[in-house]
Design goal:
The protein has a domain of 182 residues: Rossmann fold. The chain is α/β, with parallel strands linked by helices. Helices cover 44% and strands 17% of the residues. The relative contact order is 0.13. Helix 1 links the parallel strand 1 and strand 2.
């Protein structure tokens, strides 16, 4: 078996590549990346690094040839139309390259009533795979835990947690735990064709999250949310992204980001890292 990882130099892709190197030999791994020079450290280890640009169907066909398992990580491009066009190229390339198993690594924001502005892409991706000629598996992950530790110093200074979530709850998971689960899934053909949602073991209210952040930082942080409009204006970088980000927390307020499953344990035999220990460990390293 070989695996082919797209977007392998991105934040999640790097974690998945690191986990792949623990379970596969370098000659079993292919990295399909837009800038092969950014993956030179893996090429030096004997990994096959191929050029593949999501906007270039032909480059992906070449990169996906002789692939048993393709791990597809979407780009962070917005708006939806950009990601949809990229995904359409990838689906057609995977079909033409005769990829044996397509594993889509996406986000849980695919509900029909989800106001998150990138939600249409995740809904489209599942339906497009269903209408393709590919054998595929769906992975949905909860909100990334990784951005919280570097955000904590700002919250300490403000003395408030700002997310416009109201009484909603959010489930978090680290990229490392996602990567472990995805690689273990790739190694288990008997689970192909399923739908897996990777989450932590608990969904947190913002009051509860503020309490954890206060304890970790030894500073008082209260939950005092901005409005969605104010949050969008405050974090509008790059320009236009503020509304996208704010809409994610509006979805959380609607209880669309609070799913909890045991799928990480099912796939890895381990439980995802506790949110408090993760934040504590990474906050100390800042």
């Amino acid at each position: 078996m070989n695996i082919n990882i797209t977007a392998a130099t991105g934040q999640l892709g790097t974690k998945i590549t690191e986990e792949a190197l623990k379970e596969f030999t370098p000659d079993q791994i292919v990295l399909s990346v837009r800038s092969p020079e950014k993956a030179s450290q893996y090429a030096d280890q004997g990994v096959d690094v191929r050029k593949a640009d999501y906007t270039d169907y032909h480059s992906m066909v070449e990169a996906f040839k002789d692939t048993d398992v393709l791990l597809y990580i979407p780009s962070i491009s917005f708006p939806n139309t950009v990601r949809i066009e990229e995904f359409e190229n990838a689906i057609q390339a995977a079909e033409d390259a005769k990829v044996k198993q397509f594993i889509f690594v996406g986000f849980m924001a695919d509900q029909e009533n989800n106001p998150f502005k990138m939600s249409p892409f995740f809904g489209y991706a599942a339906r497009r795979l269903a209408s393709s000629d590919l054998d595929y598996t769906l992975v949905r992950n909860a909100m990334y835990l990784d951005p919280l530790p570097p955000y904590l110093p700002e919250l300490v200074e403000r003395k408030r947690l700002l997310y416009p979530v109201g009484d909603g709850r959010i489930s978090f998971i680290s990229r490392k735990d996602i990567a472990k689960a995805v690689i273990q899934l790739a190694m288990k053909p008997d689970l192909y064709g399923g739908r897996f949602t990777l989450t932590g073991r608990k969904a947190y209210s913002m009051i509860g999250l503020a309490d954890i952040l206060s304890e970790v930082s030894s500073s008082p942080i209260t939950y005092d949310p901005m409005s969605a409009e104010e949050f969008a204006k405050t974090y509008d970088e790059p320009v236009g992204f503020g509304k996208v980000l704010a809409s994610l927390y509006v979805a959380a307020e609607m209880n669309l980001m609070d799913e909890i499953t045991d799928d990480v344990h099912l796939l890895t035999g381990e439980y995802p890292e506790d949110i408090k220990s993760f934040i504590t460990d990474h906050y100390k390293k800042l």
